[in-house]
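User:
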Amino acid sequence: MTEISVRFPAEWEPQSAILIAWPHAGTDWADRLGDVEDTYIALVQAITRFQPVMICVADDDVETYADIRLRSNRVDMARVRFVTVAYDDTWLRDSGPVSLREGDGFRLLDFRFTAWGGKFEAGRDDLLVETLAAQGVFGDTPRQRIDFALEGGGIETDGHGTLLTTWRCLHERHPDAGREELTAQLSAWLHQDRVLWLDHGALEGDDTDAHIDTLARFAPGDAIVFQACDDQADSHYADLKAMADEIAALRTRNGKPYRLFPLPWAQPVLDIGEDGQPRRLAASYANFLIVNGAVLMPAYGDAADNAAAAVLAQAFPGREIVQVPCRPLIWQNGSLHCITMQLPEGLV
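Assistant: Predicted structure:
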């Protein structure tokens, strides 16, 4: 009997759609809904230039409103599909499906979503993949429920069996598990034969406990794009420098150093916290989204935006670099990649 090959594809491989969830007054975006809607409109405008987008909506009223907003901004609605499903919030990178290629088809991994270690309510988000699958959104693709807390933003693959992740995040979710055990579990579920761990790197204003997609990302051709910090006076400098040294010490499966693309550092973005005190927001350029033919990058209205776009153009030659205004997103401690999940070509 021939064994069916299973593979975790890289984000830059061909996609059928991007999955997002529309923000509404029942989510944590309520206090600044207008600003974040503008970001979602810009995001959908950018995605639909290159491929379809599937938008989760909470009910008919949310769909009608989102449809009007998008049409009024001249979005190509032929590339927009709405699906009705209940959700607590809109961070679909972490509550959405992790897609594996299995032979000529797919398998959806449905990990337990705990809202980053129980920080927020997540009951409906944890049911998102199951609900969408039951509606037939993914056709007859099998769904594998895994009773293990893991978020899509916490893992990064090169598509050839190497996984990149952070010890801080996985250890926080599973404090009783050692690195060897976690390596074995991730390798088995995600069909990876190498797991590379980073021990350094964290951003103030990030409540994911150092998701890898805020810090370092694979790029084609044995490359890693990562968030650097060149300001020695900044509180992040020492930890991100230690992370950069770790990344420089990593080796490809052929024993060679990775090609490295450090991203520039945005000036501090501050907000007023619930205690009335200023709080730092996590403005990471590493939280970019790859789509067919382009890289959508978070822009923060900072002088470093264009420099970050230039770095991404080097790391992803042949792809258009599109800046999406994401300053409203970091108010809720995430950015562009965090609110999206790619669906591989042929899945929908």
